[in-house]
Amino acid sequence: MAELNNVFLLVGVAVLYFTALAALLRARRRIGLGAFFCALGVMHFLETYLASTIYVPLPYGIVASPGSTVLFTGKLMMLLLLYLREDAVVVRQPIYGLLFGNVLLFALAFVLRHHTLVALTGDRAANFGFLNEMGALMVWGTAILFFDCIIIILLYERSRAWLGNHVWARIFLCGVVVLSFDQVAFYAGLRMLTGAGWPVLIGGWIAKMGAVALYSGMAAIYLKYFEWQFANRKAIRILDVFDTLTYRERYEDLLARTGCDALTGALDRHSLESYGRRAVEAAAAAGRPLAFLLIDIDHFKAFNDRFGHAAGDKMLKRITTEIMGAARLSDFTYRFGGEEFVVIAEGLAGHEAIALGERIRRAIAAAPAGDTQWKVTASIGIACCAKDASGYDKLFEIADKRLYEAKAAGRNTVVGERAPQESPVRLVKG
Questions:
Q1: In the chain, count of helices (H) and strands (E)?
Q2: What angle do CA 416, 421, 426 make, to 5 degrees?
Q3: Selection from 70, 13, 69, 72 nearest residue 206 by Cα
Q4: Alpha-carbon distance 215 to 225, whole Å?
Q5: 98 & 226 share domain
Q6: Residue 254, domain member (yes or no)
Q7: CATH number of the domain within which 290 lies
Q8: Strand pairing class (290-297; 332-337)
Q9: Taking the model in full, what pTM does it have?
Q10: How many domains does the chain have?
Q11: Most buried pick, 229, 384, 389, 397, via CB within 10 A?
């Protein structure tokens, strides 16, 4: 009976925690994110204290801490929600603040313990050992949280290729993977400082998986009924998205806000004209490599003539999915027009750019053609900044020329930049 009562209490705490912090997140347009960040920071001390001192029995002999099971899991889920509605730059702010504050707490405690103390009463004395232990756990937990957030964001973005728009499943998958890692990492520090036994590791993991399922459901409901319909009211901050982030942050929201091709879901030609030019200029100015891939679906007009435009539209959607799946998280895919696509891959040149083109070519060739027996292939031309050109128009021109060379070479082919002591083009043929 006591074990079931503890389960209900943990569920109640989780619902209360999520509801309160989700309300602050929802109110960020009126009162700012400061209130949300402060509330999250206040909870950080409590969750660490509970995780190091208080454990409760649950059914089947499981023991778990409300701090680790409910509060920490909830915090990570709230940071994922913050990422979904803002971006990873914003998510990093509270983590940096927590890490700095915890290190400062640890340093101040070290200084304060050298005071000559006067007891307030006979039975009250400062426990610097406990304060040191808490400070160490808080620093360790925040350091793990930093990696947790990076992993959960990258995994959430990648899971789109596996789970589509099933938000609950994507959040649940991310939570299971990241919190499994977190449980092992935090337990290592907890065992070193407190000598916690193995039941804490195993029971805590089981309890966290249950908490992940609960929080994932609440997060999906929140996103569906309280956030998605207001997504387009946010002011566009293109510079933050493109120039600051090191991986594809909130790619789905970026599509909606900067220009999304209605059929395929890729970024549209207008976005290519604006961002593509800026990306090439920035790469040329900084001396960074950049690959420009121009992709054309082979004999697509014949496919449309034979099977109809409805089948052609389905094929374009499928091909777009294959291109995005083969590209890196940091690459951006655009529909240039008709059956032509562009991929801009910053940081790639030479053989690496050709390898990306080859991955995309193979992915398209392996894509199912639906109810038809048509063999779908693509020809790809690649130009690289700054080896081939430093300007957007010239880069496009060279990629277009190499695309036609790929077609002339028999299609289903990748043509990349000239390599030293090689033929004028490098051909990678399927």
A1: 17, 8
A2: 20
A3: 69
A4: 15
A5: yes
A6: no
A7: 3.30.70.270
A8: unpaired
A9: 0.53
A10: 2
A11: 384
Q: In terms of domains, do 323 and 401 share one?
A: yes
Residues with Cβ within 8 Å of 291's Cβ and at least 6 positions away in sequence, in order, are: 343, 344, 345, 348, 349, 352, 353, 356, 382, 383, 384, 385
- In a domain? residue 244: no
- Domain span including residue 135: 2-233
pLDDT digits (tens, 9 = 90+) for 344-403: 999 998 899 999 999 999 999 987 766 667 889 999 999 999 889 989 999 999 999 999
Q: Is the distance from CB of 267 to CB of 332 less than 8 angstroms? A: yes
Q: Where are the beta strands (DSSP E) in 23-118?
A: 56-58, 62-64
Which residue in 111, 106, 112 sits closest to 137, CA to CA?
Answer: 106
Q: For residue 197, tell me if it sits in a domain.
A: yes
Structural domain ending residue among the three candidates 184, 214, 233: 233
Q: Is 249 exposed, middle or buried (0-12, 13-18, 19+ CB in 10 A)?
A: buried
Q: Are 306 and 356 in the same domain?
A: yes
Residue with tokens 């997060």: 219
Taking alpha carbons only, the member of 137, 2, 12 closest to residue 57 is 2
- Which contiguous run of DSSP H or E holds residue 382? strand 378-385
Cα dihedral 305, 306, 309, 314, rounded to 10, equals -140
Residues 90, 203 within the same domain: yes
C-alpha pair distances (Å), 167 with each of 18, 87, 162, 218, 401: 17, 17, 12, 11, 42
Taking only the tens place, the pLDDT of each residue in 136-153 is: 777 788 888 888 888 888
Reduced to 3 states (helix: H, G, I; strand: E, B; else coil), residue 168 is helix
CA pair distance 266, 320, nearest whole angstrom: 7
Of 198, 233, 268, which marks where a domain is finished?
Answer: 233
Residue type, 43: M
Q: Which amino acid is at 135?
A: G
Whether the pLDDT of residue 424 is over 70: the answer is: no
Tokens of 223: 């996103």
